[in-house]
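Private note to self, pasted from the team thread so I don't lose it. Backbone tokens:
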């Protein structure tokens, strides 16, 4: 499997396109402005899309998902804990809601990318997985037409934040981490749905137990690996 990275112009959010040997593909986190690049990649390579996956329901990771899923005729998959965010991704951002703060960072980034703040239309086909309760719901193996991806619930940044383990049968899978883990840092927990205790449990029980050789592709910023984060990330120091 190949992973192609597309960087969206809003907050430089990472969109990953998983491409199987047979041309099947899955799009993960198509943020604002990523859709155009994804469509070009699909057309250029003659790929066969299977789904759009979302690591969590914040607008900088979901904005292009509804239109892209419609155009590619595929469903949008995300953890049930974040499914409600697709009805109004701005309304679940609290202080970052660009309608409440039109001069704030998200509002400015969206306008710079040419995004109409009133143009959101929820996806036509949403297929939530996992439970919607407060506790962590564990692993779900997703059926994506030959592309093996395991969704591992990792709440804390949001209720439904999810790690996607690509080629999960390998000793060292690639981890699409969304905003759970960054190189040297972790996702914020002060927005609606964030939870310090849930994040601490995720770091201890989910992140720290990943194979050390696993490569991590965060939702923003450079790639890293689990061993490096366990050794150097101050938020993981107690879990080494």
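Design output:
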């Amino acid at each position: 499997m190949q992973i192609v990275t597309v960087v969206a112009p809003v907050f430089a959010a990472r969109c990953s396109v998983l491409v199987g040997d047979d041309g099947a593909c899955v799009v993960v986190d198509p943020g604002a402005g990523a859709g155009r690049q994804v469509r070009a990649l699909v057309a250029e390579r003659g790929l066969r899309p299977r789904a759009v996956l979302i690591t969590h329901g914040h607008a900088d990771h979901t904005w292009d998902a509804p239109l892209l899923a419609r155009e590619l005729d595929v469903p949008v998959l995300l953890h049930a804990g974040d499914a409600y965010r697709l009805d109004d991704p701005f309304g679940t951002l609290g202080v970052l809601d660009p309608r409440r703060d039109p001069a704030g960072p998200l509002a400015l980034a969206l306008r710079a990318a040419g995004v109409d703040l009133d143009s959101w239309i929820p996806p036509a086909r949403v297929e939530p997985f996992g439970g919607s309760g407060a506790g962590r719901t564990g692993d779900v193996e997703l059926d994506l037409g030959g592309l093996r991806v395991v969704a591992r619930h990792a709440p804390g940044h949001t209720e439904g934040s999810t790690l996607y383990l690509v080629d999960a049968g390998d000793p060292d899978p690639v981890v699409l981490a969304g905003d759970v883990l960054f190189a040297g840092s972790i996702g914020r927990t002060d927005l609606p749905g964030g939870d310090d205790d849930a994040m601490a449990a995720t770091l201890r029980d989910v992140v720290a137990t990943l194979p050390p050789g696993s490569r991590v592709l965060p939702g923003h910023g450079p790639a890293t690996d689990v061993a490096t984060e366990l050794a150097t990330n101050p938020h993981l120091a107690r879990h080494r």
